[in-house]
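Input record (one chain):
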Amino acid sequence: MKYKLIPLIDLDKETQLQVLGIRNEEYIREWMFTGDKINAEDHLAWIERLKNDKSQIYLIITNREDQPVGAVNIKNIDKANKIAELGFYKSQKIEEKGLLTKSLSTVIDYSFNSLGLEKIYSEAFEGNTKSLAIHKRLLFTEEGFMRLHKIKEGKRIGVHLFGLLKDEWKTEKEKINIRKDIIMEIKNV
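The corresponding structure, as predicted from the sequence alone:
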């Protein structure tokens, strides 16, 4: 199946609201740093702000029917230091194995080759085994662990810190069995 990565700001309002539905899925909210349910008004206002925000690119993973199934975002883009933060999620209704790995590898390639980044970093909550596995599969190095760093649902929880360097990606990415069926549609970024 062909998937696309399309900037959230380029989607129509109906599809943007479908993305909100995915973002508000209980499983996804469980692992987000801001786990509250987001209302439509706040979501659409945030998308409006994204249109002028050059520090982040928020991409939606869509299926063959152009329905959103997940998201990958590059945020805190720091061109002076050539670094950015990576975030991602996928609807739990989607069974496609490896979809996030494929989508993330496409975005990582883009970040290093087109944006000129030299490092991508990311964070994951303690206990988020799916996210931890994806980071390791994509060659990220665990650079640290902040014990009891965030309060989530009234309890303190630790945060894993990951980093991936451009040189590591270039020399090691061939070890990852990545299908090349993700189309990225980014204009004027």
